Amino acid sequence: MNIVNFSLQEQAILLFAALILFTSFALLAQQRMLASIHVFAWQGALVAGATGLIALVSGQHHLYFSAALTLLLKAMFLPWMLHRLVNRLGIQHHVETVVRPALVLLGAAALVVFSYYVALPIEKLSLLSTRNTIAVSMAVVLIGMLMMVARRQAVSQVIGFMSMENGLFFAAVVSTHGMPMVVELGIAFDVLVAAVLFGIFFLQIRESIESLDVDRLNRLSETEQGQLAEQVQAEQMNE
Amino acid sequence: MNALYLTLLLPLSGAIVLALIRSPVVAGWVNIGVCVGTFLASLSMALTVLHDGPFLTENGMFYIDAFNVYLVVLTGFVGITTAIFSRPYMRYVLNEGWVQKKRMRLYHAMYQGFLVTMLLALTTNNLGILWVAVEGATLATVLLVSLYRTPESVEAAWKYFILCGVGIAQALFGTVLVYFAAEHVLHSPEIGLHWTELHHVASQLDPTVMSIAFVFLLVGYGTKVGLVPLHNWLPDAHSEGPTPMSAVLSGLLLNVALYAVVRCKMLVDPALADPSWSSPQLAGNLMMGFGMLSFLVAGLFLYRQRDIKRMFSYSSIEHMGLMTFAFGIGGPLATFGALLHMTVHSLTKSAIFIAVGHATHIAGTQVIEKIRGLIKTQPMVGWGLLIGTAAIAGFPPFGVFMSEFLLLSATMQSWPWLTLVLVSGLAIAFAGLFRNIHPMVYGAVPEGQLPVQANMLPVAVHLLIVLWLGISIPSFLANWFDQATLLITGSHFL
Predict the structure, then answer these.
(1) Is B132 within 8 Å of A186 when comparing Cβ atoms?
(2) Secondary structure string (H, E, C) spanning B352-371
(3) In the structure, what pLDDT confidence band is assigned to residue A235 with cuts at 50, 70 and 90?
(4) CB-based contact (8 Å) between A225 and chain B?
């Protein structure tokens, strides 16, 4: 592929895609709580920007609405809510230790390669730029997933989850100029409800294990350890 | 068509009203009332479909055919019986002080909210809305899993939320890819996710994109079906939540997720039949593989369970695996068997969970080793549990035997050597269930064990229907399944 053959707008969209992918990597490596919330807000803003640009180029008016919705929801409301929650829980200066950061980042790079490999056959169908953006959005989704696996802190897991949503939304916008309006509203509603529920859960988890380290949520499992914990608890209850 | 809107709006308004009713006693009755209304509406819709054939609403948003209408009726029915069970059950829970009064409002409102999402997922014609509804079902139930606020229940709910959230996100990516493929064939973007339109042009959709899409869709909705290795949330959510939730999760949610997978398969199969594509059976083979794996792994896991609700949730995974496998084989015989199995499993498993709910209240624990002598303490509960387990394990006169027999015959026809694996898997599961059930229902009664107030009517009704389906399937129902089979496979079974 030759980048010079692309029109200016395609190049701009590719630039957005690259920046979004970059924020994904930044989220994965960022250990400080507030900083990762800010990076997440930037990712939302970039997705909204890309949507706005596509709306401008394609002349699809409903995309302006999607862009505004994304900006409000992903770049403003969610980060604001997370901010408020971490303040309330008193963990705004929390620094999380990421286990084997180099390995995790290499894993993320491998996921990008894998996404390109999967998107390769789609080439026949569409413009080259679409293939790139599909690969990038798939990578953002997969890196979000990796983040949820690699991080042991509930807030980071939520950020990973929401960045997956960003990837999905970006995929829908760049490959198909956005889903139909009803669906988009439905998805936004689900994300909003999910965000509120996450907030409730932070408090519940905090109440039950006095920390937000989800590694300590280990009572239920099929391993001996989990069953041991169950036993200890049953004995305590008997007393 | 009015019946359709009534089916959706009744539980929706029920959810809002129930959120406002303060008295748990009144709310319990209202909950039952709303469910009865929903069921009657769904029944009248089903009769219309039976008479006039499938219909599409004018705006193209809802599509009702033989396949989804029977699931709608089933959802309505299990909704009523579980609501009847939940009334005394939750009152007991409230009296014991496990939940506070205000959380009972949440419980009842979300019970109806869950039914709305299930019915919406079944009736919608739009793949995007289907996704929204299935995700909505997670959101409605997740707070119910942590209703008791014990550390275990919070952990279970968190796992449920995160795992299903991640899983279902894959399904959305798959949906985007389907839309992407459709864009090149259908020119109006508004209808690009309408299942009926996509089904018309399915053979022209690009096979490469559709195959990638199907993998994402299967992983996504498969998480909700509880397919191994994505099943981790299921036993936790079932065991830690209130028992009526376990009954509807097993009886309804898993079915709806499988329904979504099958609907997607119906789009992917014609697309992959394209002569330029090398593996036309990809969708079916993937489903067979995942299904078989779930079936075997869950059967083996039955042996190490010490919690009665966990044990039965593994049994649910096992049966969902079997159905996924059967839909994967395709062909009229396997599909007919799978449709029947969906019905009988849903009825039997919710009956079992109702009996289990009462049993755990009698024994005061969910630990299998401590539940003993149920038949002596309260014969109805003991027998209900025993007969339910016999039915789910596939004992002859019951419907599960019938459907498993059909599935075995179908396997014999197309993949003879897999029959051996299936039969041994069924035997393993059978033994795994009975070695635990036997001491629980017979066994010596622990001192001071007293009966509880229980309403076993739902169990009796469910098991009688399952028995009836095992002995003779009424002709209208057989006809119904046959029409659904025709839709899915393109040929009649009967």
Answers:
(1) yes
(2) HHHHHHHHHHHHCCCEHHHC
(3) low
(4) no
Q: What is the pLDDT of residue A46?
A: 94
Cβ distance B155 to A220 less than 8 Å, yes or no, reads yes
The enclosing H or E element of B63 equals strand B63-64
**CB-CB neighbors (< 8 A) of B233 in chain A:** none
pLDDT at B353: 93
Could you report the per-residue pLDDT of A123-171, keeping only the tens digit for each? 665 555 667 888 899 999 999 989 988 888 888 888 999 999 999 999 8
Nearest beta carbon to residue A183 from set B128, B155, B156: B128
Range of the domain at A208: 3-238
Q: Which residues of A16-55 are buried (b: 16+ CB within 10 A; e: fewer)?
A: bbebbbebbbbbbebeebbebbebbbbbbbbbbbbbbbbb
Contact A176 B301 (CB under 8 A): no
Query: Chain B interface, mutation test: which of A120, A210, A219, A232, most B Cβ atoms within 10 Å?
Result: A219
Task: Say if the Cβ atoms of A217 and B158 lie within 8 Å.
Answer: yes
**DSSP result, A139-207:** HHHHHHHHHHHH--BHHHHHHHHHHHHHHHHHHHHHHHS---HHHHHHHHHHHHHHHHHHHHHHHHHHH
Residues of B in contact with A125 (CB under 8 A): 181, 184, 206, 208-209
**Which tens digits make up the pLDDT trace of A60-88?**
888 898 899 999 999 999 999 999 888 88
| Radius of gyration of chain A measured on its C-alpha atoms | 20
In chain B, residues with a C-beta closer than 8 Å to the C-beta of A157 are: 162
Kindly provide the ipTM of the predicted complex, given to two decimals.
0.87
Query: What is the maximal distance between C-alpha atoms in chain B?
Result: 72
**Residue B390: pLDDT band with limits 50, 70, 90:** very high
Q: CA of B187, closest CA in chain A: separation in Å?
A: 12
The total number of structural domains in chain A stands at 1
Chain B contact present for A209, CB below 8 A: yes
Has residue A223 got a pLDDT over 60?
A: no
